[in-house]
C-alpha cells in the first residue's frame, strides 16, 4: 500500500523511507547522470516491461521510447501511464498492478 496513506506505516516508517530515498539519490545520482543505457545495455537476455509516465521530467518520454525501440530483448513491452510523471507505480497504482498481473503471472 501507499507509504503516504496506509495506516500500516508509522511516522517513523515514513521518515525512514524518505531518508532512504534521499540518501540513495545523494549517493547514486552522480553515477546515474553518467549512465548511457544505449551503450551500457543495448541487449538483455530477459523480458522487459517499461511503464513510463507520460509527464516524466526526469526521464522524458521521448528518451524512454527511443531506448525501448533500440533495446534488444527476447520480449519487451512499453506501457504509458498517461496521468503520471516519474512514479507511475504510485501515481497510477491500478495500471501498474494490472500490468504486473498481465506480464508477470503465468
Descriptive report:
This protein has 106 residues and is mainly α. Helices cover 51% and strands 11% of the residues. The protein is built from five helices and two strands; from the N terminus they run ααβαβαα. It has a two-stranded parallel sheet with strand order 1-2. Helix 3 links the parallel strand 1 and strand 2. The longest helix is centred in the first third of the chain and has 24 residues. The mean pLDDT is 93.
Q: What features would you highlight for this structure?
A:
106 residues, mainly alpha, 5 helices, 51% helix, 11% strand
In short:
The protein is mainly alpha-helical and 106 residues long.
Q: How many angstroms separate the termini? A: 24 Å
Low-confidence stretches: none
SS content category: mainly alpha
Gross morphology is globular
- Percent strand: 5-15%
Largest sheet: 2 strands, parallel
The value of Rg in angstroms is: 16 Å
Order of helices and strands: HHEHEHH
The number of helical runs is 5
